[in-house]
Design a protein that fits this description.
Number of strands: 5
Distance between the termini: 32 Å
Strand order of the largest sheet: 1-2-3-4-5
Length: 113
Amino acid sequence: MDFALTELDPGTHRVALNGRLDAAGAEAIDQRFTAAVGSVAKNALVDLTEVSFVASLGLRMFISVARVLQRRGAQMILFGAQRQVMEVFETIALDQMIPIVATEAEARARLAA
């Protein structure tokens, strides 16, 4: 599991994740992801198109970073989840805590609203 961070504008990062966000994958990126995304007061658009699996540790990472961003006046929006990943999100009602949309364009529009 790895990620790439790109600054879209002064207030927004795009974070592209790649791999399986299982226990090993979450452990591999948790500290770096939290530091890169959660330590700044910038919105984070998280691209999940290349993520094939998300386990509880990955969910915890998303929730904790989203809460930190919210306290700093920013937000995290997840987009591009594959069907099997989206099913996990729906099972735990993750969209009640973190906005989840289908495309990057929708994520950008959500920030502009």
